[in-house]
Amino acid sequence: MTIPGYEESAGLSTMQFHNVVEQKYWSLAFTSMNVAGQPKIDMSRYNAVIDSGTSIIVGPQELVDKLLGDIKVHRMCKGIEDLPDITFTIDNIDYTLGWKDYVVQVESEGVTECINGIMGSTFPPTFNYFILGDVFMRKYYTYFDGNNNRVGFSVAA
After folding, report:
1. Domains of the chain: residue spans and CATH
2. Among 73, 88, 4, CA closest to 42
3. DSSP code, position 132
4. Continuous H helices in the chain
5. The pLDDT of residue 10
6. Which end of the chain is more exposed for a tag (fewer CB within 10 A), N or C?
7. d(CA 91, CA 31)
8. Is the distance from CB of 47 to CB of 27 less than 8 angstroms?
9. CA pair distance 47, 58, nearest whole angstrom
10. Are 88 and 136 in contact (CB under 8 A)?
11. Using CA atoms, how far apart are residues 83 and 9, in angstroms rounded to an integer?
């Protein structure tokens, strides 16, 4: 962790910055999301909230259901290597997660179990946010630039 700023010598690829569109959260302009090979889901009515205090990716249940469709993560991890990529588009820039990014593997007493790190929840109708938490931030190094009111992403080394 580098405070303030980020360490440019840390092997990060080029940092892609996005302006914060709402001060309430670290909210960014959410363009769309989709599963590889499927039509894009328009997310222009929603903001992508970048939140290190949320372990998973979480959004309104109806949108998560539409995104995931038939994607099922088997509890015993069967077939996870065949799961498709999922792309979140912010300001028309694609951020793609593969199954290794969005499937959370938990080991206990020598047994590995898998859960989907993308989940839906019930929110009030006025909650127009989709929270990109730690599951997203593990792949994309995130720089919260409060001085310039923006968030930067780079593929984590």
Report:
1. 21-144 (2.40.70.10)
2. 88
3. E
4. 61-68, 99-102, 134-139
5. 56
6. N
7. 6
8. yes
9. 12
10. yes
11. 34
Give me the sign of the Cα torsion angle 50, 52, 55, 60.
negative
Residue with tokens 């001085």: 147
Tokens at residue 151, please? 């968030």
Q: How many other CB atoms are there within 10 angstroms of residue 143's CB atom?
A: 17
Q: Whole-angstrom Cα distance, residue 44 to residue 121?
A: 19
Contact 81, 63 (CB under 8 A): no
Residues whose CB is less than 8 angstroms from the CB of residue 96 and which lie 6 or more positions away in sequence, other chains included? 85, 86, 87, 88
Q: What's the token pair of residue 12?
A: 């990060």
- The phi, psi pair for 115, rounded to 5°, reads -135, 155
Q: How many CB atoms lie within 10 A of CB 136?
A: 25
- The first and second tokens of residue 136, run together, are 């997203």
Using CA atoms, how far apart are residues 140 and 126, in angstroms rounded to an integer?
Answer: 28
DSSP string across 98-144: -HHHHEEEEEETTEEEEEESEEEE---TT--EEEE-HHHHHHEEEEE
Q: What is the pLDDT of residues 13-28, one digit of tens each?
A: 588 999 999 988 899 9
* Amino acid 140: pLDDT: 95
pLDDT less than 50: residues of the chain:
none
